[in-house]
Specification:
The chain is mostly beta strands. It has 5 helices and 32 strands. It has helices at about 5-15, 170-180, 315-325, 380-385, 505-510; strands at about 25-35, 45-50, 60, 65-70, 80-85, 110-115, 120-125, 140-145, 160-165, 190, 205-210, 215-220, 230, 235-240, 245, 250, 255, 260-270, 275-280, 290-295, 350-360, 365-370, 375, 415, 420-425, 425-435, 440-445, 450-455, 475-480, 485-490, 495-500, 515-520. The strands form 7 sheets. Strands 9, 10, 12, 14, 15, 16 and 18 form a 7-stranded mixed sheet that branches. Strands 11-20-19-13-17 form a 5-stranded mixed sheet, with no helix packed on it. Pfam families: Cu-oxidase, Cu-oxidase_2, Cu-oxidase_3.
Length: about 550
């Protein structure tokens, strides 16, 4: 190949947002269908991927290119999003309704993204309507490259544990409830890898361990609303990673896993050979729901003890557990953060955004909001409207301020698209204030951030005195306890349109989310990839010519 041809090929790859050939490719074909499932013993319609519930695990390595051809055999539009995958320079692949036109029934679309400079435990899920409530989710792991050492010996095996609360209704019924202006109420149960484990006659194991060996468990809360406590009968959990960052390896009896979060632990089979029970149970609720699963020591037929460990009680325990988490600053790992952000405590904050959640009846229907604005999806995805230069026909920037109203719980709620502008590469402080009585969990697409503090009551500038400005764990999802606040710091260096959302899916669906537009003034491939050639177009941009590509 001549040098000129090689350069042309490289530019074409860059313009399509593709990685060069030295990074391996993983190819998948997904047939997404309805199917009858009975996770709580009651037949209901679920969403299957290649006939599987939960969906297949994606097992990748840092910098792999993941190519997934999704065939939508449902009767509704569909999108998938990749919780925690940052899509550097490539929000075209984020799979949220604000960035992508949906895959229409009877059609297919191919996602192509790179797990650039990331390691850790993640999951994918359907981001449209209430599809997530009935399946379509699965684990997504990103292993370190062989040349990059991990801060623990190779485990004997690697297990994915997907936990979450569950409703025994189909997604259309749940959507009708919300569209009518009502709340979904309490879930019907909790699942662990698609099963409840309670009352099952068969006690077949979910996982098997050999005595004396150590195993890697990746626990993700893929549920709808509830924080869950995870524990294993008779065994300790050595925390080694969360949301894509290696941690100081503290030992825990159990972990509170909030909606949208993933934790990796090492478990050593150092007990008497027999069966042991994994438990995931609801936290901070008046009701108690749980799921169980059996871990069997190889060669043993001794059943598990009937005495199961109880979950901790109260908020204080969970607060203190959060404060015990520390980033492992000595571990080798892929790090997508800009140079200097490991010393984030020395970077000047250029802007503070306070976001306060609320819920009220609007025109006879329940809506949830951030700073008094309840998000609704326009027919034209925000990213496409912005890219094609017709944003003014779809949304207005900065319709909310950086401060909530003084009494946000009583403030009037407006409904429509909500987009905040963030200056490219600014270092910004975001404070989530929760004046309500229920716990909140927030996720930011396209980034990891430093959760530097949380506390009761209202945040004030004095709260910064108690920030962890050294080794907060870089992650993508953070909880906010009732009548409390949580603060995060990050550099907005990833150009694109990115979703901040409540991971409580009812609240997300009814408006507790917004998008942040991060535009590079250079319009350069250095900062953002061009729109993919296969990108579906809809709404106002359906028939528009594509703008000039970035160079």
């Amino acid at each position: 190949m001549s040098q000129a041809v090689a350069v042309a090929v490289a530019l074409l790859a860059l313009s399509a947002g593709l990685a060069m050939a030295e990074d391996p490719y993983l190819f998948f074909t997904w047939n997404v269908t309805y199917g009858t499932i009975s996770p709580l013993g009651i037949p209901q319609q679920g969403i299957l991927i290649n006939g599987q519930f939960p969906g297949p695990n994606i097992n990748s390595t840092t910098n792999n290119n993941i190519v997934i051809n999704v065939f939508n055999n449902l009767d509704e539009p569909l999108l998938f999003s990749w919780n925690g995958i940052q899509h550097r320079k490539n929000s075209w692949q984020d799979g949220m309704p604000g960035t992508n036109c949906p895959i229409l029934p009877g059609t297919n679309w191919t996602y192509h993204f790179q797990v650039k400079d990331q390691i850790g435990s993640y999951f994918y899920f359907p981001s449209t309507a209430m599809h997530k409530a009935v399946g379509g989710f699965g684990g997504l792991r990103v292993n370190s490259r062989l040349l990059i050492p991990v801060p623990y010996p190779d485990p004997a095996d690697d297990y994915t544990v997907l936990i979450g609360d569950w409703y025994a209704k189909d997604h259309k019924s749940l959507k009708r409830v919300l569209d009518s202006g009502r709340s979904l109420g309490r879930p019907n149960g909790v699942l662990l890898n698609g099963k409840t484990g309670l009352g099952e006659k068969s006690k077949s194991p979910v996982f098997t361990m050999e005595a004396g060996k150590t195993y890697h468990y990746r626990i993700c809360n893929v549920g709808m609303k509830n924080s869950l406590n995870f524990r294993i009968q008779g065994h300790s959990l050595k925390l080694v990673e969360m949301d894509g960052s290696h941690t100081v390896q503290n030992i825990y009896d159990s972990l509170d896993v909030h909606v949208g979060q993933c934790y990796s632990v090492l478990v050593t089979a150092d007990q008497e050979p027999r069966d042991y029970v994994m438990i995931a149970s609801t936290r901070f609720t008046r009701y108690s729901l749980s799921a169980t699963g059996i871990i069997r020591y190889a060669g043993s037929d001794k059943p598990a003890s009937s005495v199961l460990p109880k979950a901790p009680a109260g908020w204080g325990w969970s607060f203190n557990q959060f404060r015990s988490f520390r980033w492992n600053l000595t571990a080798s790992a892929a790090r997508p953060n800009p140079q200097g952000s490991y010393h984030y405590g020395q970077i000047n904050i250029t802007r503070t955004i306070k976001l306060a959640n609320s819920g009220r009846i609007v025109d006879g229907k329940l809506r949830y909001a951030l700073n008094g604005a309840s998000y609704s999806n326009p027919d034209t995805p925000l990213k496409l409207a912005e890219y094609f230069g017709v944003a003014d026909r779809v949304f207005k920037y900065d319709t909310i301020g950086d401060e909530p109203a003084r009494n946000v719980l009583r403030a009037h709620i407006t409904v429509g698209p909500v987009v905040l502008n963030a200056t490219f590469r600014d270092f910004i402080e975001v404070v989530f204030e929760n004046h309500e009585k229920s716990i909140q969990s927030y996720h930011l697409d396209g980034y990891s951030f430093f959760p530097v503090g949380m506390g009761p009551g209202k945040w004030t500038p004095e709260s910064r005195k108690n920030y962890n400005m050294l080794d907060a764990v870089s992650r993508h999802t953070i909880q906010v306890y009732p009548k409390s606040w949580s603060a995060i710091l990050l550099t907005f260096d990833n150009a694109g349109m990115w979703n901040i959302r409540s991971e409580n899916w009812e609240r997300q669906y009814l408006g507790q989310q917004l998008y942040i537009s991060v535009l590079s003034p250079a319009r350069s491939l250095r900062d953002e990839y061009n729109i993919p050639d296969n990108q579906p177009l809809c709404g106002f941009v359906a028939d528009l010519p594509k703008p000039d590509p970035y160079t």
